[in-house]
Design goal:
This protein is mostly helical and 82 residues long. It is 77% helix and 0% strand. The protein contains five helices and no strands. It has helices at 3-15, 17-31, 33-36, 43-62, 71-81. The termini are far apart. 4% of the residues are buried. The mean pLDDT is 86.
């Protein structure tokens, strides 16, 4: 993909991040029964985690020369383990 194409895709995703987040969150709840009750992971925490991870991916798309940080994933894993 060209740099211009990647920039266009990044802006498209950034502009639609709330919709993409809700769609991904809904798909997780539809497909992974363990998450539906909110006992394993509180539903607001799951939604926040999906949003943070998608935001991180979109940011990485904007800067392909930077590596994708895993801090958010580590924080999410730690919260869910405790």
């Amino acid at each position: 993909m060209s740099r211009a194409g990647l920039a266009e895709l990044t802006e498209w995703a950034r502009a639609r991040l709330p919709w993409l987040t809700d769609d991904a969150y809904g798909a997780i709840l539809d497909r992974i029964e363990l998450y539906r009750s909110g006992r394993l992971v509180p539903l607001d925490d799951l939604h926040r985690s999906v949003e943070q991870n998608l935001r991180s991916i979109v940011a990485a798309m904007a800067r392909p020369d930077f590596s994708l940080g895993l801090t958010l994933a580590h924080q999410t894993g730690w919260r869910r383990a405790n």
